[in-house]
Amino acid sequence: MNNYMICLDGSTESDRAFAWIEGIALNDPSKQIKIFLLNIIDTKPIDKLNLDFDHDKKICAEKGLSVYANRLQLNNIKYETILVETYHSMRETIIEQAEKHNIDMIILGHASKNKLKRVIDGDLRGKIATYLLKHANCPLIIFK
């Protein structure tokens, strides 16, 4: 079984990454691909702003994951959804999930973000992609 994990955040880049891995899975004659759909809700920045958007973020994340899951299900592609709420680093959470699920490749959409967008997305210490390139124990594909 080939396990691929795609990090989804609703961006155009992650949509393109999903379309790519979906195409790979559709054209796999062995049908041995399993796609793990990962969405992380980072609650740290919200707490710092003293706002309570966690519930809305979770509902939005669940709806987003279900859209991708439905596409895979319609095409008979094996998948698993992973929704993680964390106060820890998003970068480290991605690595933890990859190790936990024996992921063979991580797929990530990457867009340039200003400082406010990084705070909202929980990328406070810098680029997630750069961290994953240095710390992931499996190959990483980045879509821009």
TrEMBL record:
<dbReference type="InterPro" id="IPR006016">
    <property type="entry name" value="UspA"/>
</dbReference>
<dbReference type="InterPro" id="IPR051688">
    <property type="entry name" value="USP_A"/>
</dbReference>
<dbReference type="InterPro" id="IPR014729">
    <property type="entry name" value="Rossmann-like_a/b/a_fold"/>
</dbReference>
<protein>
    <recommendedName>
        <fullName>UspA domain-containing protein</fullName>
    </recommendedName>
</protein>
<feature type="domain" description="UspA">
    <location>
        <begin position="5"/>
        <end position="144"/>
    </location>
</feature>
<dbReference type="Pfam" id="PF00582">
    <property type="entry name" value="Usp"/>
</dbReference>
